[in-house]
Amino acid sequence: MPAHRLLIGLAGLMGGAGVALAAASSHGADASRLATASAMLLFHATAILATTALLARGLLHDGIGLVAAFGLASGAALFAGDLTLRQYAGHALFPYAAPTGGTVMIAGWLALTLAAVATRK
Fold it and tell me: Taking residues 55-77, what's their average pLDDT?
């Protein structure tokens, strides 16, 4: 499966999970973690789709753009997964999982910036 199709599929899963978490957060008491997890998934799913479209149009450096998109996907999944597990199971995925996911998302955004300005070969 080409990387672009994998990213589109991941974005679809993230979008669906984001909507489900938004619904869950609106029905639960003290569900602010779920609302935050939902927002991260929905925002980053959209960013992944946009990055994939920009890659297809040749507006980003291919390799760096793919690293950026996978960074956004993995960081958002890690961040949201940790918050969701904390909400439902009462414990973290692993120590510092959410901050690690956040750091990976930041790195993904910075890689996206680099992909936009890097010289293509």
Answer: 97
Mean pLDDT of 77-84: 97
Which residue, among 31, 30, 29, has the nearest Cα to 20 in the 3D structure? 31
**43-47 mean pLDDT:** 98
Q: In angstroms, rounded to a whole number, what is the distance separating the alpha carbons of residues 90 and 63?
A: 38
Give me the residue spans of the domains in the chain.
3-117
Cα 74 from Cα 89, distance rounded (Å):
21
At residue 120, the pLDDT reads 65
CA distances from 35 to 22, 26, 27, 53, 102 (A): 6, 8, 11, 27, 16
Tell me the residue type at 42: L
